[in-house]
Fold this protein.
Amino acid sequence: MLANRRTAAAIGAVALAGALLSAGPAQADATSPSPAASAKSAPKSDGAKGICKRLPKTEARIGAALTRLNGDATVAGSIARLEQRVTEAKNAGHTEVQNYLNDRLTFRKSLVPTLQKRQADLKSVSTWCAAQGSK
C-alpha cells in the first residue's frame, strides 16, 4: 500500500514537471510583445503639449538651481560654499573628507554648463510654444 502511494506520488511529480516544462515556452511567448501590441503602447505624440504646459515651472526650477550654484559662500548648495568646505577639510588635515568633498565639487561644477544649456534650449522651446499658441 505504501509502495502504491510512492508510485502515485512519483507519477504525479513527473506529470507536474512535464506540464511545467511544456508551459515554459508558451509563457515566454506571452510576455514578448507582438508588433500589434507594441503599436498600441507607442506614444501618440511627442509630448509637446505637456512640455509647453510645464515650461514656466521648468524654467523657474533651472533658474533657481543656477542661482543657488552660483551663490556666494553663505548660500547652501553653492559651489563657493563647497569650495570653502574643501579648504577647511584640507587645513584640518582630513584627507578623506577633502577627497569626498572634492569629488562632489567636481560634479557640482559640471552641473553649471549642463543647466545653462538646458536654459538656452528652453528659451527656444518657449518661442516655439508661443508660436503654436500653447503658452
In short: The mean pLDDT is 82. The two ends are 83 Å apart (CA to CA). Helices lie at 2-31, 35-41, 48-69, 79-92, 95-132.
